[in-house]
Task: structure prediction
Amino acid sequence: MKKKLVVLAFILFAATMYFVFYHKDKTLEYIPENADVVVLVDVKNLTRQYISSLAMHPAQWFDGKSNKKNTISILKSGVKIPDFFQVFHLKNTRYSQWYSIVELTDKQQFLRYLKQEQFISKGKEVFQKDQMYIKINGEKCILSTSDLNSNTGIFQFSGKKPYHAGSFLDGSSGSISFISGRQIRNFSIDLLSDAIEIKNKPDVKDFSRVISKLQQNKFFLEAELDKENIRKFTSFFNKNFADSSQVSHFRTAATLKQVNDTIITYGYDDNFNETEKKTVQKIIQPDYVIALQSSNSEKTQLYFQNEKWMNARNQLTAIPFQPNIMTRTEAGFEIKSTGRPLSLSPSLKENFIFIRNNALLSSSFNSLTAAEKKIISGLDYIFYGNNDQYYYLSLKFKKKELPLILRW
Result:
């Protein structure tokens, strides 16, 4: 009899563990038809990862428990925690506009949670904190990075079969997917101990050799892109740049420095005499060098002039930083800032963008919250790499005792 009870208890425990940590509703009913980019987070996958990491760091079991005793956690905020957290972008909207829809289980508790988190009521059940907007719509809640007091009927839903999570991710912690008609291009998101990796194929090329060389150069920014990558990145701003400018290869390197900037203002004294006041402020300024390889240098220069990106003093005014000098080279053009001269490292013959964290950069982001500044300060570098049809992005954080999932 005791053995049967033990077996029954084990079966019940195993079933409970399966439904709590593994069983998922993969129907994505809150992604509209007019979404063109979808970000999914596998909540149960991350939950298992969190518990596993927590089990390996017992010192964190009771850390900060007394300080959070009277606060409402997200788990008890009145929001139904979905199996897949769904964030989406809509066609023909700004790149900064993102949305998510979640269900409410207790509206009054959710209102208490918003008050605790210092959201401000904007009327019509819309709340705002910094750049985050929340609108309560019956038993649902709309989250957005844009004002929701305007028409929220921009979401196009129909009676068609909703999206399925299996179309977007398979086994990873999350995904970012680009939708074009019936085609969906998926990039997996994996949360590692000290990095977040995004890639479109599991067997993506190993870029560790490239990253190792870039770390030795000590530049804040370094990049090298072929024409296809130039086309991809410039399409966000100018769809015809790569073809119209004839630029076929791009390389750059930059460092950061803090300089004193003098601001002169004028006023009048009590006798109506004009007075001059000088104010000195510290600003962050880059030193940089850019090499553009062109298939037709004459057409490239004419394109820059027609776009009013190049003035009569051979300065590329499209760069909104300190003055520079643009000179013709055998392969195309070289643009150098007028500050401390920089020289490019030897070409790695790869497609990459490498951005190293810099204390000067993070200190200049005054609009960021304390939590956002903490995340940015923990970054080591950001690396983008492309090889043919393989794409890879890594947000590498500084090594610490705790894994990323326990740091934030």
